[in-house]
Amino acid sequence: MKKIGIALIILLSVLSIVSLFYFDPIAQDNTYHNFADQREIFGIANLLNVASNLPFLIVGWLGVYMTINSKLHILEKLKMAYMIMFCGLIVIFIGSSYYHLMPNNESLVWDRLPMAVVFMSLFSIIVSEFVSMDLGKKLLFPFIVAGIASVVYWHMTEQIGVGDLRFYGLVQFLPIMIIVAILIFFKSNHKSDVYAYTYLLIAYAVAKVFEYYDAQVYEYLILISGHSIKHVIAAVGLYMFLIKKRIALKR
Asked: What domains, with CATH codes, occur in the chain?
């Protein structure tokens, strides 16, 4: 099974990287910032899109607290990676709230930077727990640098009028595909609960659906938009991840 997994990961990586050169640069569509719910409430612009980031702060703080106090099923060698990931969630609360107060390409940078750090930290953790501890640890900071670089590169290209999201798209979606392959074809060497990561992937997929149908959800529900629900679902997935990790510790 591992050989199949390795072959699939190599194939996905090669195809994804080659595809970068097949497509022309992709600029950020300015309509991306036109969220369905733009209500100003209590003098705060886009209040629900801003306030719905609060669960990230809560889950991030819980993750930091539980990691420091050894309340999660985490190997000592991986505590730094987990701390970076959970601290990144706290920064997502700040960055995403700032972005939604005044949505534009400039503020979007501060939304995407912490997300890139969280994604790449999680990627390193899964490699460490399922594939190779040494490899995952060595890849932690290169992964994070790659994630940050993808956002910086996109921002710089937008500044000169030739916006290019290809690298950011690669860094965001290739790890997701590789993580799915790892969870299917590899077994954890450290008894990590695969369901904890499955919850994250399911929540991510469902959140993306609500993001895509932002306007339709808002039209139907009236009180809240798909984008706001996206924030909540993503945070709930992260909370379920914490619960499964806590349960694993108790076993």
From this structure: 2-7+35-250 (1.20.1070.10)
Longest dimension (CA), the chain: 57
158-178 confidence digits (pLDDT tens): 999 888 999 999 999 999 999
C-alpha span between 61 and 158 (Å, rounded): 33
Amino acid at 152: V
Quick check: helix, strand or coil at residue 216?
helix
CA dist 235 and 212 (Å) reads: 17
**What is the pLDDT of the chain when averaged over all its residues?**
93
On whether the CB atoms of residues 63 and 243 are closer than 8 A, the answer is no
Please tell me the pTM assigned to this model: 0.93
b/e per residue 43-75 (b: at least 16 CB within 10 A): eeebbbbbbbbebbbebbebbbebbeeebbbbb
Task: Look at phi and psi of residue 20 and say left if phi exceeds 0, alpha if psi is from -120 to 50, else beta.
Answer: alpha
